[in-house]
Design goal:
- The chain contains six helices and six strands, in the order αβαβαβαβαββα.
- Strands 1, 2, 3, 4, 5 and 6 form a six-stranded parallel beta sheet that branches.
- By secondary structure, the chain is α/β, with parallel strands linked by helices.
Amino acid sequence: MRTRIISLIVIAMTTLGMNVQAQNSSADKKVLVAYFSRSGNTRAIADHIKSLTGGDMFEIQVAKPYPEEYHACTEVAKKEKEDNARPALKTKVENIASYDVIFVGYPNWWGTMPMPILTFLESYDLNGKVVIPFCTHGGGGEQNCFKDFVKHIGKADSKQGFLIGGGQASSARPQVESWLKGLKLIQ
């Protein structure tokens, strides 16, 4: 009986040790949180992810800014989508090869991601990386935002994306934390 109890304790300790090691290995991954945000909602989610993962932030900015006025901005975005455009970006991530996990955030524009996101994704070799989308919307929901995203990440590994209404973004830290725990990226 005593031998059996000792064996069970050793098995339990080994199992616990393995779980701790697996959790630590997720925490040891280098994280980049890249985002494109017009109104600040997507940036709010990016801030939550950064603070929870300890990742680095990178704002995806276009070389030619979108119009400030909402309707004019949506018309430019619609034309870019129709033309399958790849707007030039203002800056690049110089050391993307050093990241293991890359979060990419954006608003839902015309049922999918804004075209600068495609420019971003197509500018790098993402093979072997974990690339995870997050998206804000103004009532349109997911539509094709995640399906289209996965089509443009090459041989990268994708995980379940995070979606939330833009008006809820600033207070969404608990939902973001739950999502990241579900992905086993934080404890």
